[in-house]
């Protein structure tokens, strides 16, 4: 008897992958899928597992609220928290707007630029998602679980996922009446495959900044780029004095590269110009400017 290949037809009722990778640009919710605690929504790393009852978060037997988050906060945020992967799943939820989604894993891998859905790749995705058991989402004063892996079916090569937080976030954004778009789709989904997560976070911060500025130039101080990037900020706080400038160089140089190679910024904005200099710890007051001549038609 021939091999019983696992195909998307045999996988059952699975969701389609979106065409683009979405990031939030609305001023009040732009940090909703990041760990910088500002605005009406953001993620919060607890550093320990928590319990969930009827979508309510409990820690050590008591409800977790915004007011008592500081009692269980972790000092350091590990780079193993895979925020780009979470944004991939947000893009899928945004595209289908369902409470629970079933994903055919080879299609998910292809969306992220991986042609081979190997066992190691799939195990890595499931393991990365499980780390969000130590992360909660804060939205409009509510504390919600970020994402659940409800089922992994090896026979069908599917994963079933739900996200109370991202669903609430999407509902909230869809209800807002704004003139500007609430999302940008300039970043390519294969950015998730980059190893330098601190640089990826910097790319997200900068693309949101540029999109927010619209037809105007965007400016940001290097110190603000560091402070808005908790992965980088925590790494700098832990690093030995002799290593801090090396860390800045690796992060900024990779971010400048990724903006050109892992986004469509050069196609969207005419004559787009960006910096390429690297700050040092003694020169974090430098202001970076991103200029262009308007959006391409």
Description:
The protein is of the alpha+beta class and 297 residues long. It has two domains: 23-175, Arc Repressor Mutant, subunit A (Orthogonal Bundle); 194-290, no CATH class. It has nine helices and 13 strands. The radius of gyration is 20 Å and the shape is globular. 35% of the residues are buried.
Task: Briefly characterize the structure.
This protein is α+β, with helices and mostly antiparallel strands and 297 residues long. It contains nine helices and 13 strands. Helix content is 33%, strand content 17%.
Topology:
Blueprint lengths: L22 E2 L16 E5 L5 E3 L2 E4 L2 E2 L19 H14 L3 E5 H7 L7 H12 L4 E5 L2 E4 L2 E6 L4 E5 L1 H12 L7 E2 L12 H17 L4 E4 H6 L2 H9 L5 H18 L3 H4 L18 E4 L7
Antiparallel strand pairs: 1-11, 2-7, 3-4, 4-5, 6-10, 7-8, 9-10, 12-13
Helix pairs in contact: 5-8
What name does the CATH topology of the largest domain carry? Arc Repressor Mutant, subunit A
Relative helix content: 25-40%
Round the Cα radius of gyration to an integer and report it. Answer: 20 Å
CATH architecture of the largest domain: Orthogonal Bundle
Low-confidence stretches: 1-5
How is the biggest beta sheet arranged? Answer: 3 strands, antiparallel
N- to C-terminal separation? 56 Å
> Numbering strands along the chain, what is their spatial order in the largest sheet?
2-7-8
């Amino acid at each position: 008897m021939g091999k019983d290949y696992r195909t998307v037809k045999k996988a059952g009722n699975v969701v389609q992958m979106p065409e683009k990778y979405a990031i939030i640009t609305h001023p009040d919710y732009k940090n909703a899928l990041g760990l910088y605690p500002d605005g009406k929504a953001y993620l919060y790393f607890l550093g320990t597992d928590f319990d969930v009852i009827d979508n309510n978060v409990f820690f050590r037997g008591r409800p977790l609220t915004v007011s008592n988050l500081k009692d269980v906060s972790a000092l350091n945020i590990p780079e193993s928290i895979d925020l780009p992967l979470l944004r991939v799943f947000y893009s899928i939820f945004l595209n289908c707007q369902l409470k629970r989604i079933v994903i055919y894993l080879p299609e998910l891998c292809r969306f992220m630029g991986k042609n081979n859905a190997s066992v190691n790749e799939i195990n890595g995705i499931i393991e990365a998602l499980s780390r969000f058991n130590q992360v909660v989402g804060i939205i409009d004063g509510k504390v919600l679980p970020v994402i659940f892996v409800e089922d992994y079916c090896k026979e069908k090569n599917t994963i079933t996922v739900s996200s109370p937080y991202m669903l609430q976030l999407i509902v909230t954004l869809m209800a807002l009446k704004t003139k500007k778009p609430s999302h940008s789709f300039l970043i390519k989904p294969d950015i998730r495959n980059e190893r330098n997560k601190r640089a990826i976070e910097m790319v997200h911060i900068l693309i949101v900044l540029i999109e927010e500025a619209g037809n105007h130039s965007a400016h940001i101080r290097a110190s603000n780029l560091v402070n808005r990037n908790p992965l980088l900020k925590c790494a700098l706080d832990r690093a030995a004095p002799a290593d801090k400038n090396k860390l800045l160089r690796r992060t900024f140089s990779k971010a400048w590269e990724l903006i050109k190679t892992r986004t469509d910024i050069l196609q969207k904005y005419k004559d787009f110009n960006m910096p390429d200099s690297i700050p040092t710890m003694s020169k974090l007051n430098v202001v970076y400017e991103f200029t262009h001549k308007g959006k391409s038609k």
